[in-house]
Amino acid sequence: MNVELYDFELPEELIAQTPLQDRTSSRLLTLNKESGAMAHHTFKDIVNELHAGDTLVLNDTRVIPARLFGLKEDTGAKAEVLLLKNLGEDRWEALVKPGKKLKVGSVIHFGDELKAVIEEESDMGGRVLSFTYEGIFQEILDRLGQMPLPPYIKEKLMIKNVTRRYILVMKALLRHRQQVYISRKNCSMKFVPKA
Q1: For the chain, which domains are there?
Q2: Which residue ranges run through the membrane (predicted)?
Q3: Cα separations in angstroms, 73 against 64, 90, 96
Q4: What's the pTM?
Q5: Sequence-separated (6 or more) residues with CB below 8 Å from residue 91
Q6: Which tens digits make up the pLDDT trace of 34-53?
């Protein structure tokens, strides 16, 4: 497959840096499968696009603050870790920076409450890390971690704001769960309780 086919020009001024306060005002592009016609709407218009027999699939992915910044134990050098996959038993597959300096056996401290030891190198330059901490890992991650954002997003997401919005959305959806099936804890942040 030629990945260059996916390259396209995207003007910086068209890239949203923060979510809209009123998520239902987000843009919605529709495509008519039969005619090929495209139309621009706002997300609140989605109800006009859904018909009896349609299937609405909700993305239930929860993005965690998986980017951690720490210091190597032996040298005090900066280290960056991007958690990719929870392997269980406090072990994670991750990407690390600087990869050449973070070898098996390296210890990274993330403040006083979290420590990681690189146990092995994985495919494609990744690492398997084993974490030690006191408390609940997700709570520590919420405090120390940052949301992994693509390089064209310059604004940092405030985890508290995202979490508060997420809770409001989930409460609204759970009130109407007979109409919407949710298999996990998250959904698109564009769904909001009806005012």
Answers
A1: 19-63+155-195 (no CATH), 67-144 (2.40.10.240)
A2: none
A3: 25, 19, 15
A4: 0.66
A5: 119, 128, 129, 130, 131
A6: 999 999 999 999 889 888 99
